[in-house]
From TrEMBL, chain A:
Family of the protein in this entry: Belongs to the ThiG family.
Uppermost EC category: transferase
Protein name: Thiazole synthase
Source organism of the structure: Syntrophotalea acetylenivorans
Pathway assignment: Cofactor biosynthesis; thiamine diphosphate biosynthesis
Keyword annotations from UniProtKB, A to Z: Cytoplasm, Schiff base, Thiamine biosynthesis, Transferase
CDD domains reported in the protein's UniProt record: ThiG
TrEMBL record, chain B:
The protein, known as: Thiamine biosynthesis protein ThiH
Residue ranges constituting the Radical SAM core domain according to the UniProt record: 70-314
UniProt lineage: Bacteria, Pseudomonadati, Thermodesulfobacteriota, Desulfuromonadia, Desulfuromonadales
PANTHER family membership: 2-IMINOACETATE SYNTHASE
PROSITE patterns: RADICAL_SAM
Organism of origin: Syntrophotalea acetylenivorans
SMART domains, sorted: BATS
GO molecular function: 4 iron, 4 sulfur cluster binding; catalytic activity; iron ion binding
Length: 256, 374
């Protein structure tokens, strides 16, 4: 698979993996390994930064994976910025998955506060990967303030519903000047393949791996889905037509 | 409009009629709906739904795993004081009960906090009775500030405050409020609270809203199960939760299921709640509020807690003491109620892992609220 480049840094895998909801840290680690992923996102609220041997972090090979702290739980820009700075102060690289989700039910991102936080964090030297609703205009604004990606949701977090925002994501992909990572809602490898076939640069998956009885196997399946989708995109999918096109047209004789 | 206005429209008779009117067709319709309506809530709480308990449980289990994964958050209660000027007939802290009364000094609070921190807890719930003059907002705020270095999340379950009081708690570092209505049946509430400030039903009912207005990040509600008919109480809790979720959409609404336990005073449940009823109630609340934390305390037996976990529970207490100073070496003063599950945190973690859950001690960070540099 061709490499993914974000903010000048290359990654072999186009699958990013989240670390929440797993039954154990051992199952999480097995899933991370099987995913072939290079980028792993961790909710800062779950990490005991004051505790150097925090159990969650101890199960993530920091030499192998880029640890991408996320600000989930932040309700506004100020909180998200504070959390990102806290992670950096604790020794994390200045990369952050920006999540501003004031609605604790569907965890839908706040576009206004996300944009505010992104602007501050970019100026502060962070590589910012913002989680957003599939809003093409917001994606443009974020690019303009200097985010490294945009990460539109396929469906609300944890729903496993797939790429329900397909038409908007297609516009974002068409217009993007930074990598587009489809984040949230992907419940099956076929969903990941679909996003990649559309031209997404990467996908991020968590719940679909965490709640299955065999997370490692599912992670491997997602890796294959991502790879298949990317290959299909690069190869160029055949056009979808309403009518069948005979391989031996009935009017072909006119051109003989 | 406050919840009180909405609540007053739902008389116990009206709620009872809605529950009684539900038959299998209404239950099946409710089970088919992705989002529950109020009539669905009544149907699923009804006797007619008892024949669908397994379906309810399966759906509650699937929803919980989808929204929370295979994790259970642990917390510990820390009783600061058992002083109380109220006369709640069911409560061990009832002012009429003869018992050793004490309020922890701030140093004692810190000592208790250190013990719980060493046991791994990062989410703590502070509890008190209601004792104007001894346990006031300033004391609570000072206690919160004293223990902030030890915990990621600090919750309070204390007397109802006005909005300024809750704002003061938020400023001190509290992120979660729990306030049980005890019973939503007004006439019974009057009987059970003969004197004391807690007699004011409306003031208590609107406490959750005042907490929401003050910016508390999560708000826990519930009924004390065993006081009144659990089906009606369940309906009111659901009504309340839905109202709060709509009006304070930035805050998460948590629901607890405290069942009456033996306590000083010897109060006997007026409307006992069976294990099956508790299962039905928990499952229905999960269907109504898919993203709410559902909380189970050590009031329940170890065996029952183990079985209730997969049905929708997302937070449990562990290794609890319900008396001030109960974690330290000093002699325990009287407790609020007798706990049933006395397993310590380590044993609870082992049980959770054996059931395929990750015990989560930290799922919040005080940096969300903290303007200083920790």
């Amino acid at each position: 698979m061709d490499k993914l480049t974000i903010a000048g840094r290359s990654f072999a895998s186009r699958l990013m993996v989240g670390t929440g909801k797993f039954a154990s840290n051992e199952l999480m680690a097995a899933a991370l390994n099987a995913s072939g992923s290079d980028i792993v996102t961790v909710a800062l609220r779950r990490v005991d930064i004051d505790k150097p041997d925090d159990d969650l972090l101890a199960h993530i090979d920091r030499d192998r994976f880029l640890l991408l702290p996320n600000t989930s739980g932040a309700r506004d820009a100020e909180e998200a910025v504070r959390l990102a700075r806290l992670a950096r102060a604790a020794g994390c690289e200045p990369w952050v998955k920006l999540e501003v989700t004031p609605d604790p039910y569907y965890l839908l991102p706040d576009p206004i506060e996300t944009l505010k936080a992104a602007e501050i964090l970019v100026k502060d030297g962070f590589t910012v990967l913002p989680y957003i609703n599939a809003d093409p205009v917001l994606a443009k604004h974020l690019q303009e303030v200097g985010t490294a990606t945009v990460m539109p949701l396929g469906a609300p977090i944890g729903t496993n519903k797939g790429v329900r925002t397909r038409d908007s994501i297609a516009i974002i992909i068409e217009q993007a000047i930074v990598p587009v990572v489809v984040d949230a809602g992907l419940g099956a490898p076929s969903h990941a393949a679909e996003a990649m076939e559309m031209g997404a640069d990467a996908v991020l998956v968590n719940t679909a791996l965490a709640v299955t009885p065999d997370p490692a196997r599912m992670a491997a399946a997602f890796a294959k889905g991502v790879e298949a989708g990317r290959e299909a995109y690069l190869a160029g999918l055949g056009a979808i037509k309403d009518q069948a096109e005979a391989s031996s047209p009935l009017t072909g004789f006119l051109r003989d | 409009m406050t919840f009180l206005n909405e609540f007053n429209q739902w008389t116990p008779e009206r709620v009872q009629q809605l529950i009684d009117a539900a038959g299998p067709a209404q239950v099946e319709q409710a089970l088919a709906n992705e989002h529950l309506r109020l009539m669905d809530l009544a149907a699923l709480l009804s006797p007619a739904a008892e024949g669908y308990l397994e379906q309810l449980a399966q759906r509650a289990h699937r929803l919980t795993q989808q929204r929370f994964g295979k994790t259970i958050q642990l917390y510990a209660p820390l009783y600061l004081s058992n002083l109380c000027c109220n006369s709640c007939l069911y409560c061990g802290f009832n002012a009429d009960n003869q018992m050793e009364r004490r309020t922890l000094s701030l140093d004692e609070v810190e000592a208790e906090a250190r013990i719980l921190h060493e046991r791994g807890f990062r989410h703590i719930q502070l509890l008190t009775g209601e004792a104007p003059g001894a346990v006031e907002n300033a004391y609570l705020a000072a206690a919160v500030q004293k223990i902030r270095p030890f915990f990621s999340s600090i919750s309070i379950e204390v007397y109802p405050m006005d909005e300024c009081g809750y704002a003061q708690m938020v400023a001190a570092g509290v992120d979660n409020l729990t306030v049980y209505q005890e019973t939503y049946e007004r006439s019974l509430y009057d009987e059970l609270h003969p004197y004391g400030p807690k007699r004011d039903f409306d003031w208590r009912l609107n406490a959750a809203e005042r907490g929401g207005s003050a910016g508390l990040r999560s708000i826990g509600i519930g009924a004390l199960l065993g006081l009144s008919d659990w089906r009606k109480e369940g309906f009111y809790v659901g009504l309340h939760a839905r109202y709060l979720a709509k009006h304070f959409w930035r805050s998460r609404i948590n629901i607890s299921f405290p069942r009456l336990r033996p306590a000083d005073g010897g109060f006997k449940p007026l409307a006992p709640v069976s294990d099956a009823a508790l299962v039905q109630l928990i499952c229905v609340m999960r269907l109504l509020m898919p993203d709410s934390a559902l909380v189970l305390s050590t009031r329940e037996s170890a065996s029952l807690r183990d079985h209730l976990l997969p049905l929708g529970i997302t937070q449990i207490s562990a290794g609890s003491s319900t008396s001030p100073g109960g974690y330290g070496q000093q002699a325990e003063s009287s407790q609020q109620f007798a706990i049933d599950d006395d397993r310590d945190a380590e044993e609870i973690c082992s049980m959770l892992r054996a059931q395929g859950y990750d015990p989560v001690f930290k799922d919040w960070d005080r940096a969300f609220l903290d303007n200083s540099n920790r």
